[in-house]
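Just wondering, can you check both lines?
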Amino acid sequence: MKMVAFNGSPNQEGNTYHAIKMVAAELEKEGIETEIVHVGNKTIRGCIACMQCAKHQNEECALKDDEVNEWVQKMKNAAAIILGSPVHYSAIGGTMKSFLDRAFFVGGVNGGLYRHKVGASVVAVRRSGGIPTFDQLNHFLNYSEMLIATSNYWNVIHGRAPGEALQDEEGVQIMRVLGKNMVWMMRLVQNGKGVVAEPEKEAKVYTNFIR
């Protein structure tokens, strides 16, 4: 099994990275392969609503001048996905948001590429805005019918300078517990395949409120 994580911070080894590493360490202890993809330092355009990914059904975004399509395949082939972001104005970092909008739309309109994978969100924040950002990240997991792993509190860790998050004792425990719960869920999914029938996927119903 493999877990792929996406670091939405501009800093390659800032507190978002350290939060992801804490979770990943628990998976690695159990022999699960992990990979961290640095998204936050890339130039990534937002979704242009061209609908070509839905039209062609090729698991690709029509914008091909960045690494988003490569990352979509990493997510498709992983058993678990972690989304990590710092807090920018009580929200997801802009580059990370552009990536998520495109990657999750591609996944959704191409048969549900991430459906029933184990997912988790983690947030690093200096002071405030961690909960809104955590909530925003979870929207992507929820909409994709992913199985959301939890911890013993919101998955938010505090720190300003890179590495300060390691001093947040409660935050460190949150990430550790999250990692353990992810391992457990991944094994439940793996061992349940062929034993417990998955619910049949339903075609998405779209309702417009303006007639």
About this structure: Helices lie at 15-29, 52-56, 68-77, 94-109, 130-143, 169-192. The longest strand covers residues 118-125. The chain is about 40% helix and 15% strand. The CA atoms of residues 50 and 62 lie 8 Å apart.
